[in-house]
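Final report, closing paragraph on structural work. Over the funding period we assembled a curated collection of sequence-structure pairs, and we close with a single example.
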Amino acid sequence: MSIYDIEVKSITGQTGTLAPYKGKVMLIVNTATGCGFAPQFKGLQKLHDEYSEQGFAVLGFPSGQFANQEKETDSEVAQVCELNFGVSFPLFSKTDVNGKDAHPLFKHLTEEARGVLGTKAIKWNFTKFLVDREGNVVKRFGSADEPAKIESHIAELLKNS
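Its predicted structure, as stored:
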């Protein structure tokens, strides 16, 4: 199964796949509006704005699995992201990223790009996965990796594909 075949649900409730992103470089991020790393939303939006016309997309997947730092409902998440952080990049429904109920997308991402010491588990909010235009997971970035630090990796992928 390709990453593009995985079923996802938008923050507004529409079910689909990642097929619309085929041929794009994607940065897939597990987010949380109540997290200390939430200011990264602004940096992620800046990357999305800067590179979207070149075939790049940030995809945000809210998760409440880490200290329950996400709002209860998708509509609350969307509202906070838009009002507090100016987010206009695609957001998806609240998602489990670890454990037996982990979403198939995150099972795929963590299998393809392991963390420190080869671990699969996501350690915290704002773990980021960079995916090339062919759907290959090329790099995993931790929570503390600021979006600006990832920019050169994005630009390289866009230039070379």
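The first strand starts at residue 7 and ends at 9. The domain at 3-159 is CATH 3.40.30.10 (Glutaredoxin). We thank the funder for supporting this effort.
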